[in-house]
């Protein structure tokens, strides 16, 4: 009988995490984080059964290299508490080929199809816990293959269509944050 488990986490710089480190660990690779200069070497980690990067059509070809992809994510996010990636772990109790195909199709249909880049790693230490890790980007890609904005600022307007001023100044107006995609809600 299959045991259902789903865990979704945000990889956040504000919590001392790195998308580069997360990808290196899950893929069992050695990747240098260009943001802080730290080299994350997990080449001795066992149990890596399969890794793969799936990209939307408007992603740059070089994003098929996980070092380039996740260093690009680290570079575009300027904030010290930036949300870098979202991780989804899904254990599977199927043959290896079925595990890979199931995860690949799930990722294509739910993430890549709407514009996210996804980094898949299947782990299996032969301990009865085969599972997949999926790291996915939180920013959209523009048609010109550059990173888009996660959100934009929108001015709040009064009944006459004028910007509503804040009480503390002549040139300060009330605003609200509008997400550019519905992935981060």
TrEMBL record:
Q: Which residues form the MobA/MobL protein domain?
A: 17-185
Q: Which Pfam families does this UniProt record tie to the protein?
A: MobA_MobL (PF03389)
Q: Does the keyword Signal apply?
A: no
Q: Which UniProt keywords apply?
A: Conjugation
Q: Is the keyword Transit peptide in the record? A: no
UniProt xrefs under InterPro entries: MobA_MobL
What Gene3D superfamilies has UniProt attached to this entry?
3.30.930.30
For this chain, the family text in UniProt reads: Belongs to the MobA/MobL family.
User: What protein am I looking at?
Assistant: Conjugation protein
